[in-house]
Amino acid sequence: MKILGLFRHAKSDWQDARARDFDRPLNKRGRKGALVMGRHIRDYGQKWDRIVASPAARSAETIEIASKDSGHSYPINWDRRIYLASSATLLDLLREHDDADETILMVGHNPGLEDLIFDLVPDDGSSPLRDVVEAKFPTAAFAVLQIPVDRWQDVTEGSASLVHLTRPRDLDPALGPELLD
Q1: Residue 161 CA: distances (Å) to CA of 29, 71, 102, 118, 165
Q2: DSSP string spanning 80-96?
Q3: What is the rounded CA–CA span in Å between residue 116 and residue 157?
Q4: Does the pTM of the predicted model rise above 0.90?
Q5: Model confidence over 2-41: pLDDT tens digits?
Q6: N or C, where is the chain less crowded by C-beta within 10 Å?
C-alpha cells in the first residue's frame, strides 16, 4: 500500500503585478493558513518518507511555515515539473519514485493536484470526500490517498481511495472564502 499526500500551496500575494508568477510569495492569510495546516498535518500523524515539491516561492514558503512545528525533518525533492503541471505529468512523476518510499507528500498547485485526485479516485459515488474536492480544492488544502500497489510505477487512474481531506476553513472559519485579503 502506498500513501500519497497532496498539499496545495497556501494563499499567495498578487500585489506586485510585475512579479513573475513563479516568484509570488504568500500573503498574510496564506502564512496563517500554512501554519494552521502544518499543525493539522503534524497532528494527522502520517510520517512522510519524502516530500516532492514545486520550487515556486509560494510552495517553498508553505513548506517552510507548515513544517515549523512538525518535529520532523523530511527529505525534499524540488521538482520544477510540478509547477503548473497537469495531472498526467504529476502521475508520471509519481511513477518515477523509489519504491522504498512508502509515503510521499506532494506540494504543488492547482489545477494539477485537484485533477490528480479526480483521476486517481473513481467517480462512482463511493467517495463523499471526492465530492467535496469537486466543489473546490482551495489553497492550503490537504488530502490523503491510499493506493493499493507495491510499486509507484503501478499507480493507475481510478485506483486510489481518498481517505482524508482538510481545508483551512475546516480548522479556522476566518480562513474561509468569505474573508477578503
Answers
A1: 30, 28, 16, 11, 11
A2: GGGTT--HHHHHHHHHT
A3: 9
A4: yes
A5: 999 999 999 998 877 777 899 999 999 999 999 999 999 9
A6: N
C-alpha cell at 158: 481510478
Structural domains in the chain, sorted by start? 2-175 (3.40.50.1240)
User: Which cell numbers in the block locate residue 78?
Assistant: 524540488
- Sign, CA dihedral 176-179-180-181, equals negative
Residue range 128-177, pLDDT digits in tens: 999 999 999 999 999 999 999 999 999 999 999 999 999 999 999 888 87
Instruction: For residues 163 and 99, give the distance between their C-alpha atoms in angstroms, rounded to a whole number.
Output: 21
Count of C-beta atoms within a 10 Å radius of residue 27 = 18
pLDDT at 178: 56
Residue 139 burial (C-beta neighbours within 10 Å; 0-12, 13-18, 19+):
buried
- Identify the residue whose cell numbers are 494552521: 36
